[in-house]
Amino acid sequence: MSATIIDGFTIAASTRARVAEQVSSLKKSGVDPCLAVVLVGDNPASVSYVSGKAKALQEVGMIDRSIHLPADTSEDELLTLVQDLNADKTVHGILVQLPLPSHINEQLIIVAIDPAKDVDGFHPVNLGNMLIERECFLPCTPHGVLVLLRETGVQTVGAHAVIVGRSNIVGKPLSILLARRDCNATVTVCHTKTRDLGAMTRQADILIAAAGSPRMITADMIKPGATVIDVGVNRVSDATAKKGYRLVGDVDFEPACAVAGAITPVPRGVGPMTIAMLMENTLVAAERSMR
């Protein structure tokens, strides 16, 4: 068996193209969608993510209101900036790049963002509405995973989905989304205290690895023919690589390809979808501002 490679890069490009068309139409109505991305400090991964978002904003024709603050920015200063952005009617979406420096309470900042501009989908109001299936912004990575499954024709109704990882950013919201009536999967969430992880993952029709641990899901942990979604992005040392490292997922990719029915690569899998869903959420925020 050789797994079908799920090309998140191409699906994300198609999503961005659709968003670009809608942005163009929205501009004709006098609304110019704008996303404010706030970066505190110089975390290399965060700088890379923000750069990718800026490129996507340019591609879809949205205004990029990037704000780069020094690492010693105080919590009060950041809260004041968020409040100013909340009040700015020309800003439709606000994203504060995580992680923040240790002296800043991330949850305090997230809660300070206007839920109507919370295009990351992390505000408790949006998460609560997601839980009870009301209109809200869905967290970008979990939403991207759902789109990948839909666009590749993966059947979720009645399927057993096993998620490895219970983060607030991916694992927990994804478990809720997959169990909702529009997906109707049966969901198991595994974590560091799960006994015999392999016994659980081998039951999965859809296996989602989101633990942040390089190659932890080995081929023998995968049910033959399963769909494997690898959310992990991990840097591992590689002297042969130009940068001295390379990116790998939470799944041991090449051996897994011999067992899985379909699998996402790292990179060019889930990552591009996260940014594409951010563009879509920002578009929706701009559209709702007209109500």
Count of DSSP-assigned helices: 10
The CATH architecture classification of the largest domain is 3-Layer(aba) Sandwich
Range of helix content: 25-40%
> What's the alpha carbon Rg, rounded to whole Å?
19 Å
Mean pLDDT: 96
Spatial sequence of strands, sheet with the most strands = 1-11-8-7-5-6
Could you tell me the strand content as a percent range? 15-25%
What does this structure look like?
By secondary structure, the protein is an alpha/beta fold. It folds into two domains: 30-114, Rossmann fold, CATH 3.40.50.10860; 140-271, NAD(P)-binding Rossmann-like Domain (Rossmann fold, 3-Layer(aba) Sandwich). It is built from ten helices and eleven strands. It has helices spanning 8-28, 44-60, 75-87, 106-112, 124-131, 140-151, 171-179, 197-201, 253-257, 270-288, and strands spanning 4-5, 34-40, 63-69, 93-96, 160-164, 186-190, 206-209, 227-230, 234-237, 245-248, 262-263. The strands form three sheets. Strands 1-11-8-7-5-6 form a six-stranded parallel beta sheet. Strands 3-2-4 form a three-stranded parallel beta sheet, with helices on both faces. A two-stranded antiparallel sheet has the order 9-10. Helix 7 links the parallel strand 5 (160-164) and strand 6 (186-190). It is globular, with a radius of gyration of 19 Å. It starts with a strand and ends with a helix.
Give the SSE layout.
Elements (H helix, E strand, L loop, with lengths): L3 E2 L2 H21 L5 E7 L3 H17 L2 E7 L5 H13 L5 E4 L9 H7 L11 H8 L8 H12 L8 E5 L6 H9 L6 E5 L6 H5 L4 E4 L17 E4 L3 E4 L7 E4 L4 H5 L4 E2 L6 H19 L3
Parallel strand pairs: 1-11, 2-3, 2-4, 5-6, 5-7, 7-8, 8-11
Antiparallel strand pairs: 9-10
Helix pairs in contact: 1-10, 2-10, 6-7, 6-10
